[in-house]
């Protein structure tokens, strides 16, 4: 049973909200009736509803623990807690006892889902109260950013903003016994906008009506009850606009910190990739040089494999060339292929027709080895179909010379 003090507080909150957003009853002044905002009349019943009253700001567990929904994006490891059996039992009991205060709605809230699955918890066995366990925390309700970008939710939020803008430009109508029909208020606003030549207001109201029709088709709002549920949310948003703005500022700060952390993580990963590639190049160099260090000194410093010429028939006989494009076969058969390498594992193949260069193709040993590991037997290079295994065999022999 609420006390008189509680009732006074609620009335003060609604009164403050009405004062801040011009929602209080206007004086019977003709000029004021033409210019004053009319959020008042359509939303007044919604403000008087208990669920639309702005109460004290609830305790925010996320702010207290310095966690938010973006923190998982930058976590390198899952968080771990150490908790005793007695603490688990006590926490479960407290959640069951105060679930209606923690989660007022009866829907499929995550906490209600978990408690329903756990069912009742029996007493902890004697002597086992202090036994501790280590638990890794995993978000079983994890959702991706793409899933949160819901067009219907965006339309709903956009329409609420449009309603507030529209009502702020419609003159106050004299009081009537029955609450006004909301669509009639919007239509009256269109007439007022046309009469006064207020084109921006006309566009806002027309867009509001169009959006509301779409929302009703989707079953998200109902005209049968004069959109009372929707208007109640609008009223609540107006009453709590300052708190909502503060929350939005917090979200922006959190997102900014998350983006900064992600950029730092990206830089770290890029550095790791660069170091890995450098290490891989050194390993290749040590592997292929082997016992041939003296021979390698005879080559120019930029060449790892000296240019070696093969005819088409030689590569075909070795099985390196598996097949060729039929439209190019007559030309390719007359070509010579010069293979060289300036970087371990990457070969440059120049196809020559007489003295002229016809094609220049790169063959990467890593790509060939990946194909071999995946069971791919051939690879196409500019109309030349190469046998993976035999190409690797030939290139390795060239490197080891």
What does this structure look like?
The protein has 401 residues and is of the alpha+beta class. The protein is 54% helix and 13% strand. The protein is built from 18 helices and nine strands. The strands form three sheets. The protein has a four-stranded antiparallel β-sheet with strand order 3-5-6-7. Strands 4-9-8 form a three-stranded antiparallel β-sheet. A hairpin with a 2-residue loop joins strand 5 and strand 6. Helix 3 crosses helix 12. It starts with a helix and ends with a helix.
Features:
401 residues; four-stranded antiparallel β-sheet; disordered N terminus; three-stranded antiparallel β-sheet; flat; alpha+beta; single chain; 54% helix
Order of helices and strands: HHHHEHHHEHHHHHHHEHEHEEEHEEH
Structural class: alpha+beta
Strand content: 5-15%
DSSP helix count? 18
Q: What number is the mean pLDDT?
A: 76
Categorize the overall geometry: flat
Number of strands: 9
What is the gyration radius calculated from CA atoms? 37 Å
Biggest sheet, in brief?
Answer: 4 strands, antiparallel
Show unreliable segments: 1-41, 46-55, 295-300
Q: Numbering strands along the chain, what is their spatial order in the largest sheet?
A: 3-5-6-7
> How many angstroms separate the termini?
94 Å
Helical content stands at 40-55%
Can you lay out the helices and strands and say which pair or pack?
Elements: H1 4-20, H2 30-35, H3 40-48, H4 61-65, E1 80-84, H5 85-97, H6 99-102, H7 110-118, E2 132-136, H8 145-148, H9 151-167, H10 182-196, H11 199-217, H12 228-239, H13 241-289, H14 293-296, E3 305-311, H15 312-318, E4 321-324, H16 329-332, E5 336-343, E6 346-353, E7 356-364, H17 365-373, E8 378-381, E9 384-387, H18 388-400
Antiparallel strand pairs: 1-2, 3-5, 4-9, 5-6, 6-7, 8-9
Helix pairs in contact: 3-12, 9-11, 9-12, 10-11, 17-18
